[in-house]
Amino acid sequence: MATAAREGAMYLLLGGSGAGKTLLVKRLQKLSSKDGAKELGEPPATLPTVGTNLTDLSLGKKITVRELGGCMGPIWSSYYSDCCSVLYMIDAARPTQISSSCVQLLSLLSAEKLASVPVLIIFNKIDLPCYMSLVEMKSLFRIQDIITFAKQPIAVLETSARDGTGLSNVLQWFNSTLCN
Ligand SMILES: Nc1nc2c(ncn2[C@@H]2O[C@H](COP(=O)(O)OP(=O)(O)OP(=O)(O)O)[C@@H](O)[C@H]2O)c(=O)[nH]1
Ligand SMILES: [Mg+2]
């Protein structure tokens, strides 16, 4: 799908509905803002993203994060040619979504257009109690096999976009993968 030319590298942010993508970009925008907000404060309200949501971040150089709403899953691939890196978000508090998230992730990893882009897998909502541990979730996901057999360089992080845990690691990942 054609997109208007923008300054800065384009990062795609994907993941199932309600995984926390919109809250993540709002938090990252606040953390990387000029006044360098140290206190995140209460999480701002979010609405389900219908379509796409573009957010610019200044991390040394300007980058743009394009969130595609979970409900856009069937047409995510229309945006693959336009990005230099992918973030894939998983709701770590909803084990019932493991199989659908895994299928979606494998599908994007096997896409020709994404064959050489760095991928960051984020397990979000680690602040919430869950009947399954993250270790069990990752094992069910077969995350180690996915990393071993994928063509792309893959990093995995755990976050809470709600309380801010792990967000500095996400910013570090952006800095380490700054595309031209
Ligand atoms: N407890 C908790 N809630 C979170 C976290 N991240 C997001 N949420 C909440 O989860 C709900 C959905 O968050 P969104 O950011 O809108 O989810 P999304 O992935 O953008 O969803 P779509 O746009 O529909 O694909 C909101 O109520 C958020 O406040 C988190 O880390 N912990
Ligand atoms: Mg959203």
* Share of residues in helices: 25-40%
Number of E-state strands: 6
Bound molecules: guanosine-5'-triphosphate, magnesium ion
**Count of domain modules:** 1
What is CATH's topology name? Rossmann fold
pLDDT < 50 stretches: none
Distance between the termini: 21 Å
Tell me the name of the CATH class: Alpha Beta
Widest β-sheet, arrangement of strands: 2-3-1-4-5-6
Report the C-alpha radius of gyration, rounded.
Answer: 15 Å
Can you offer a commentary on this structure?
- This protein is of the alpha/beta class.
- It has a single domain, classed as Rossmann fold (3-Layer(aba) Sandwich), CATH 3.40.50.300.
- Helix content is 27%, strand content 23%.
- It has helices at residues 21-31, 98-109, 134-141, 143-149, 167-176, and strands at residues 9-15, 52-59, 61-68, 85-91, 119-124, 154-158.
- It has a six-stranded mixed beta sheet, sandwiched between helices.
- Helix 1 (21-31) packs across helix 5 (167-176).
- The chain is globular.
- The mean pLDDT is 91.
- It binds guanosine-5'-triphosphate and magnesium ion.
- Magnesium ion binds next to helix 1.
